[in-house]
Amino acid sequence: MKALLFERPIRFATGPLTIEEEAQEMEHFTFPYHRPVLVTETIELLAPRPGSLILDGTCGGGGHSEAILQAGADVLALDRDPDALEFAAARLTNFGNRVTLHHANYRDAASVLDQLGIAQIGGALLDLGVSSRQLENAERGFSLMRNGPLDMRMDPRQELTAAEVVNSYSEEELTRILREYGEEPAARRIASRIVKLRKDGPFRETLALAKAIEKIIGRHGRRHPATQVFQALRMEVNDELGALQAGLVSLTNRLEPGARVAVITFHSLEDRIVKNFFRDRSREFLDRPEWPAPRPNPEFSLRVLTPKPIEPDAIEQRSNPRSRSARLRAAERTE
User: Is beta strand 327-333 parallel, antiparallel or unpaired with respect to 295-296?
Assistant: First the structure.
């Protein structure tokens, strides 16, 4: 397999930060390579074997892929961000044809595997979240502290941007995504005010929106009041939960018997989806009160390896503050 060249960032998988935390980390953490979260625990759970193929669905800066390659397995690395893939390609170049990089959303993993003529894989990894370089680059529109266009696209090929969501969605639609994806208590009030304010001119830049939200709900403590709104917009623009649900199905269906899937999440919405997916496919039988007897579960295919999610220890959280909200779950293919 050949490593394809793309463009280069530094990647930290992460959940939303306060504006002060983000500024502090940009000031004090400038690494030539990204720091993968829970890397030791992830490799232990994936148990990569020499000669097997692990699909890294969110390659980012290549830290987890590098650890998998060092453990002896080959890697098929996907990412929707071409900038991330260029950096990963540069980092992993010494592994030669043991690594293949592909510009794709992991939800389309089955299609990529079909294109490459690969029937089954020896494991899969998803490391979710927005990257440090995406936050750092004002032009990407993810950051609360750097002014830039309201973009937030992880894949620049897609059409939907945060500006379109903010300026064209109805009040009801905005309320829904702020509640569902941002878990924002003031969702209705914020959506209503945004709809009124945009009549005077569309929102085009990140700081204008952040300041407007701060005026709507005020500032209490260190957490910027627009944090959950920006999270919700990002998740809507990139259909992150939809990609996760589709990707879990796509990846687990292609695991060979005994192969494992590991997922690192950074907030409760993602973690709940992974937890429920693993639970539902680890039940050999289904039982309901109206049934005379339990029935075989047609989706039974997994054995849960992490009854409770694995979290970073205190040492990792101190050395890499962005790891503090990470949760790692894993399961093994039974068939």
Answer: unpaired
